[in-house]
Amino acid sequence: MNPPATPATGSGRIRTPLPFPTAAKPAVADTQLRANLHRATRTIRAKRARVVDEVPDWEALRDAGSAIKADVQRRLPELLEQFEASATAAGATVHWARDAAEACRIVVALTQAAGADEVVKVKSMATQEIELNEALEAAGIAAYETDLAELIVQLGEDTPSHILVPAIHYNRGQIREIFQRRMADAPTDLSDEPAALAEAARAHLRRRFLSARVAVSGANFAVADSGTLVVVESEGNGRMCLTLPETLISVVGVEKLLPTFTDLEVFLQLLPRSSTGERMNPYTSMWTGVTPDDGPQTVHIVLVDNGRSAVLADPVGRPALSCIRCSACLNVCPVYERAGGHAYGSVYPGPIGAILSPQLTGVADNASLPYASTLCGACYDVCPVKINIPEILVHLRQQAPHPAAERATMRVLSWVMRSPRRWAAALRLARAGAGPLGAYRQRRTGARTLRRLPWPASAWTRSRDLPLPAPQTFRDWWGKQ
Amino acid sequence: MTARDEILARLRTALADNPPPVQVPRRYRRVDDRADLIGTLVDRLEDYRAVVHHGIDALPRLLSEVDRLAVPTDVPAEWLAGYAGQLHRDAPPLSPAALDALDAVLTGCAVAVADTGTIILDAGPAQGRRALTLVPDRHICVVRTDQVVGLLPEALTRLDPRAPQTWISGPSATSDIELNRVEGVHGPRRLEVVLIGLGT
Amino acid sequence: MRIALFITCVNDLAYPGTGIAVTRILRRLGHTVEFPTAQTCCGQMHANTGYRAEAMPMVRNYVDVFDSYDAIVAPSGSCTAMIRDQYPHLHAPAASVAARTYELSELLVDVLGVTDVGAEFPETVTYHPTCHGLRMLRLGDRPLTLLRNVRGIQLVELGDAEECCGFGGTFALKNPDVSTAMLTDKCARVRDTGARVLAAADNSCLAHIGGGLDRNRSGVRAMHYAEILAETGATS
After folding, report:
1. Is-contact A111 A249, C-beta < 8 A?
2. Please, which of A25, A58, A227, C206 could form a disulfide with A86 given CB 3.0 to 4.6 Å?
3. Which residues contact A403 (CB under 8 A, 6 or more apart)?
């Protein structure tokens, strides 16, 4: 008898080791980081706005994208079976992984079976999520990141801080420094011109591409009716990995499905304009199983749950699975711009990370993330698949474990504010208590504000004055008329 | 229970609320009503730093700069008229190292999308396998005007998902340094498009 | 038309001048305003901080107090957004009264059809569109339209106007570093304008930005835009 299959939370690099406010503190204080993020996010915001504004049917595309993803979620089990059948018929081998560890074991075993001790990698959030590089390394297999930003992060022994541009936290000077320090074949006179840095990466990876036997990728989309995988990229490193090696292993989250090949007509319009702010990214590769004499002749696909079933189980939080990893929400988020990606702990930073990571792990394990937002709503406005991120943030806050003192305060306030009589009394009390104090402050400083208060109100008064209750409340004024 | 069965069972449990069927609203444009598709294509190609040439007559001059040229086995003979350099047909298949030693590759395409400046290769006639258009540093691509469509939805109807596809929009590029676009990384650093009319 | 004023808890306690201003504007336009004293708070702070159960009694109280009015006006974008966006999901019987609840500029422009309230305010003013008014209520340029018709006013554009000030309710207390960084940038943009008055549709956001401006002794005064619309020159 099989045990009942309960949707399960995931593992891997999706947990905040530190609460968000604690992790954000040094980031906010790092003026270089702040300047790098400020410049980069403003640049990409403007580019996105320009190419979105030129599309007259953008809202119709968003509506379609949102609905297609909702349909995928509703029919996920049957679409996965259809995808498996289509891809298998086309010559691919489909594997299934319950969690990060199982996915890593599968990829390691497949690499070993191919007789390889190194792999080239296409940038993939799924493999970052499951910490595949660490697992490969533990098995004696070298993993080489080939996307420029991933290469920078790998050489710098750092972790990604952005979904699309993992090295967004570095400026050109810092990147040159990393290349000179860690890239053995970097030119000695390497300049910090982006073109020169890109050229150095090209030369560094060229031999590796031409000789690699195994590549590991993710996928942006997996098409159920045809068994096709799609990878969207810019540099050509993706094409190199997806075309030249004998063996290709693609790690794909189960939510990446689209029902039909035709649905790509929506998503390949939404994704590039939302992510890099281009009408179309330089390269998109699509492959369906094995094509004789063209590209890898051994094709594996690893379908990963790792917490996605738990996200699916929450009807309010479910739309987080619609995310196509464009990162438009990061780029417009004022919190992300100040705190940077590392403060979110998980590989999924920014507004989407604040709703996705806690759902993948269970809210208790990422309790600070749903609060890492002012609920300003800028993310929802730019989301190409219309994920109502603020609504899901508020929903997750209901499930988050609350500090005891906060809970007690909130309950008392609720008890007072639910009753017109108690609320009116509280207003009288506040006015009476603040009256003499306010008059004193008014005489001393010319304003009825406080400048320094003990904890927890000190969180406010450290950077802002706090207004005192007015000499008469509104209802006092009204009553006197 | 296998991982497959367990994941599928988990997902079915997760959908216990039985969400209602979804009608996908497809109110987006599926046909382009722009008059000048070719002009749009050229504008978009050039915006992303592809070089555009007009007419088959541009080919001999372009190819005269190429010492070692890769071509698919079924390249139309008229595209190579007068070519005097080293011609490398992809039969038997050229190794990656051999391709890396060549100067350029000449192919056709399956479809071109004006709205986004995208050229789509699907391993069909005059296109060859994927490695051919990837490793050489310069890609010269012949696009017939009847292969040009306006919008992405129009392109997809002409494509077979079972064929391996490469969608190309300008030369290789990266935005990974300060989110500024720089052309030229791993893919061909030069993309040249030769637009030819019907019957040429 | 029976119009009720929902003053909001923050305004009742700390910003009575905003409620007085709304009352004066509407009376000047010939309308009667009622103030049902059994009103308390919309429950936004509780609901948005994760205490929806504790917010529910306030939601029900709002329905009891206001359901009999034709229109309810609140001088707050975020409280109005709480009522209009969240109430129907929290408490089905609230849907009707939620649909009749308006932010001040919506009541004036959309319901009463007024864009010139006959105000006079000879000052340099910059306007910050607060997030919930901007992106949840989609107030658009309604408040600015009203301000543009104020005699003597000189409106100057705020840089990065649509960016959040970093208040976010309890966000300012839970994430003080990020909140302060956002506030610092917002205050800098306000000072860049050279305006003497910063106007907005929410006193909570204004308490935040104004508190930052006061801390830096910028001399810029934070004012709810209703208080500008209430000025006629005659009284001041």
Report:
1. yes
2. A227
3. none
Q: Which residues of chain A have pLDDT under 50?
A: 1
Range of the domain at A468: 420-474
Contact criterion met (CB below 8 Å) for A235 and B184: no
- Kindly give, in sequence order, each residue whose CB lies less than 8 Å from that of residue A407, ignoring residues fewer than 6 positions away: C51
ipTM of predicted complex: 0.97
pLDDT tens per residue, range B1-51: 999 999 999 999 999 999 999 999 999 999 998 889 999 999 999 999 999
- Is residue B199 predicted with pLDDT exceeding 60? no
Q: What residue ranges do the domains of chain B occupy?
A: 34-196
Question: Strand, coil or helix: what is B25?
Answer: coil
**Quick one: which of A215, A299, A302 has its CA closest to A254?**
A302
DSSP 8-state symbol, B93: P
Domain spans of chain C?
Answer: 3-111, 124-230
> Which whole-number Å values give the CA distances from C140 to A295, C162, C210, in the listed order?
53, 11, 23
Mark whether A136 and A275 lie in a shared domain.
yes
Within a domain: A237: yes
Q: Which of A308, A334, A352 is the last residue of a domain?
A: A308
CB contact under 8 A, B175 and A175: no
DSSP one-letter code for A371: G
Domain C124-230 has CATH 3.40.50: yes
Q: What is the pLDDT of residue A91?
A: 98
Q: Which of A450, A444, A439, A449 is nearest to A472 (CA)?
A: A439
CATH code, B34-196: 3.40.50.10420
Mutate to test the interface with A, among B122, B167, B175, B181 (most CBs of A within 10 A): B175
Q: Into how many domains does chain A fold?
A: 2
Mutate which of A58, A172, A286, A327 to disrupt the B interface (most B C-beta within 10 Å)?
A: A286
B11's tokens = 């997902």
DSSP code for C82: I
Residue A198 lies in a domain: yes
Instruction: Return the residue of C nearest to A380 by Cα.
Output: C135
Please report residues of A whose CB lies closer than 8 A to that of C11: 474
Of C9, C134, C170, the CB nearest to A417: C9
pLDDT score of A3: 58
Taking CB atoms and an 8 Å cutoff, what residues of chain C touch A460? 172-173, 176, 211
**pLDDT profile of chain C (236 residues), mean per 10:** 96 96 97 97 97 98 98 98 97 98 98 98 98 97 98 98 97 97 98 98 97 92 98 73
A327 domain residue, yes or no = no
**Strands ordered across the beta sheet of A283-288:** A257-258, A221-223, A228-233, A283-288, B165-168, B118-121, B111-113, B148-149
> In whole angstroms, what is the distance from residue C51 CA to residue A400 CA?
10
Inform me whether the pLDDT recorded for B175 exceeds 90.
Answer: no
What's the confidence (pLDDT) of residue C236?
45
Query: Has residue B200 got a pLDDT over 50?
Result: no
Say how far apart CA C27 and CA B188 lie, in whole Å: 72
Q: Which residue among A282, A308, A334 closes a domain?
A: A308
